[in-house]
Amino acid sequence: MNMLETQVDPAKTKTIIEYSSGSTVISMSMIARVMHGIEDTRAYLSNKTSEAKLRLMQFFGLDITLFGGPSQPEPFDERGGIQNARRKAMHSEEILNPNQYENDDNWQAHIRWTGPQIFKQLPEINVLCAGMGTSGTMTGLGTYFGKVKPSVVRLAVCTAPGDRVPGPRSFALLGPVEFPWKEAVDVIEEVNSPDSYSLSLDLCREGVVCGPSSGFNLQGLFQMLEKRKKAGTLAELAGPDGLIHSVFLCCDLPYQYIGEYFQKLSPEKFHPIRNERLARVDLYRYDESWERSPVVLFTRFYEPPRSLTQSLLSDIVLKSQCCILDLRTSADFSTWHLPGSVNIPLRSLDSHTPKPFSEPSVLEAQWLELEELFSDRDAVSRLHSHHVLAICYNGDTARVATSVLRAKGIEADSLRGGYQALRDHHLWGDGSISSTDRAYSPVAVPVEQTN
């Protein structure tokens, strides 16, 4: 906000460009849109940025350009994205590059706002801890507390050499930074990424929802306090009340870094996912309206019976443009089946098979078989102009089949409760079976039946 407040020219500025790892440029885009009416904010960033963060930036309406090379280029490296953004702005009055790496409004914002807010809430403060990225936060806060309360120990945290945490930089990369950070810092700690992610995870699980840079800051604070404790100088930090009032900055959220937590930390940090194999199957939607009661046989799929007899279900006639797919075994189909139905026996189903929604391995096997079966274009094309009813022993496998068929563009329903429901409703009959009713290969699914 501070950087845009003085630099945006209402008559000229139409585009904001900034090299940023994410949070800064997202904030810029919102402030530019809401406070300055600028819709076009462009983010320059490393090609090593996680997909989750890229999607987050797209979500907030940013125009993204990726750059190769180091993920944290030196601010004055002409080959990096920071200087590319700077050059772009130099060639057009309509483009503003706030350039957080060189803009004094960056660190002065923390003298203007962040420092006074902290001091108002905790005037007893003894230790202040912040990470070093652009160094703007620490420069501003360190400068502010150096004036209002010089006794505050100002701790800056850098990434360990050769390591990376989103946002902060290593001490070596701070060399070219021109902000007066050296005068604003008393102590420097170096923190590695596993400790940063681990402590962030612990904080989140205790209700302080924050990202790896926040865990990074707290780890730096813990390291400094531990060193003081071992050296016997910890008490020197205490205030008149004998307590050490410490402040560390929670400067990010964990959500865009979720994948990195699993990369950086050991599997023991996370509970395993039970039935994880189901994440790769049963991928299509379900709808309660696709599960039909036995009444549907008489209202949607069969012509009204001529008379009510004990052999009712053996005498009814299948309507044109309707198809009944029976998924039971060939043996059970031959014993009794609905008139005009087509038998597609599944390898993964018999009368003793557990229900797919109670046994994950059954669901996996049945879904994979149904997906393969109905991926046959010829078989599916024959069903496209028909209303399909899938039926099985208890209804659940037919429900899975309906989900797959609907995903392939077929109007399909399942019979809730399957053949067991027909038995429960006393609709099961031992009527004769037409000689034209037979079992069919799943490779070629006919839909025209003669009765």
From TrEMBL:
Instruction: Identify one Pfam family in the record.
Output: PALP
Q: Which SUPFAM superfamilies match?
A: Rhodanese/Cell cycle control phosphatase, Tryptophan synthase beta subunit-like PLP-dependent enzymes
**Taking every annotated instance into account, which residue ranges of this chain make up the domain Rhodanese?**
318-431
Q: Which PROSITE patterns match?
A: RHODANESE_3
Q: Which SMART domains match?
A: RHOD
Protein name listed in UniProt: Cysteine synthase B
Organism field = Aspergillus sclerotialis
